[in-house]
């Protein structure tokens, strides 16, 4: 397996895999990626990199475009130049703001859709089999992102009050092992697609919960009551209240880790609470 990383990206989270992967550093030039893809000659490219900003600031626009549009386009250019057959793209259910049709909830989601539009050219002109896998919410051990589960863990450790929104928005948490399964399934599907076609899937759990329900399940799994104040923060502008996506769930027929079990796996792996 070959991994393309930014020069600043650390390998701490995948340190157990460092002897099993080949790392290639990318400084921003398209020619670099083409050379790397030429040397590797992969059958499939997985595009996982992303810059996420739920509510962006003007100075963050460049980073959003570079990570979510430019890099993906460079990868597609390299795939076309080197005859790569399959391309697995990562999307977001935020591309469907309270509707099954395309309606971006924020600029992040709009950049994700923009790459799919650009990909149409490469799909048609170079016969790439292109699959977009839309993620909802993901979690797992040692997650460094400022997401819900890490915030709940921090509140449990500190016993400090955690201020939240009213908490009625839906959360679709998928455990990291099942996220990996989804990408493998996407790659297997792409291998069987006719050249020059595309397909979009969503990776959804069996159960969808509200933020309040997730917090309660977290408390039950941990065996500890947290000091959570719902309603202290308003909902964000264009908050995605309902998970609504017309794409087929790629995990529909797959046995998944439930939220309670997944949280216990997180606690056991980290052994810090």
UniProtKB/TrEMBL annotation:
Residue span, NAD-dependent epimerase/dehydratase domain: 30-193
Highest taxon, organism lineage: Bacteria
Matches recorded under InterPro entries: Epimerase_deHydtase, NAD(P)-bd_dom_sf
One Pfam family this sequence matches: Epimerase
Family as reported in the entry's similarity comment: Belongs to the NAD(P)-dependent epimerase/dehydratase family.
Protein name per the record: CDP-3, 6-dideoxy-D-glycero-L-glycero-4-hexulose-4-reductase
């Amino acid at each position: 397996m070959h991994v393309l990383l930014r020069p600043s990206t650390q390998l701490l989270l995948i340190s157990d895999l460092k002897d099993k992967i080949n790392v290639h550093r990318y400084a921003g030039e398209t020619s670099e990626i083409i050379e790397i893809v030429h040397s590797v000659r992969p059958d499939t490219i997985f595009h996982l990199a992303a810059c996420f900003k739920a509510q962006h600031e003007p100075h963050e626009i460049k980073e959003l475009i570079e990570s979510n549009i430019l890099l993906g386009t460079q990868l597609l250019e390299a795939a076309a130049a080197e005859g790569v057959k399959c391309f697995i793209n990562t999307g977001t259910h935020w591309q469907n703001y309270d509707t099954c049709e395309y309606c971006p909830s924020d600029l992040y989601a709009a950049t994700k859709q923009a790459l799919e539009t650009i990909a149409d050219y490469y799909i048609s002109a170079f016969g790439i089999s292109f699959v977009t896998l839309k993620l909802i919410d993901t979690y797992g051990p040692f997650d460094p992102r400022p997401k819900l589960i890490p915030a709940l863990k921090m509140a449990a450790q500190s016993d400090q009050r955690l201020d939240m929104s009213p908490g009625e928005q839906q959360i679709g948490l998928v455990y990291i092992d099942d996220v990996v399964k989804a990408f493998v399934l996407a790659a297997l599907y792409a291998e069987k697609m006719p050249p020059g076609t595309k397909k979009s899937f969503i990776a959804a759990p069996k159960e969808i919960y509200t933020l309040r329900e997730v917090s309660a399940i977290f408390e039950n799994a941990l065996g500890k009551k947290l000091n959570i104040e719902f309603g202290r923060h308003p909902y964000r502008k264009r908050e995605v209240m309902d998970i609504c996506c017309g794409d087929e769930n790629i995990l529909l027929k797959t046995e998944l880790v439930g939220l309670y079990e997944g949280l216990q796996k997180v606690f056991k792996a980290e052994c810090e609470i």
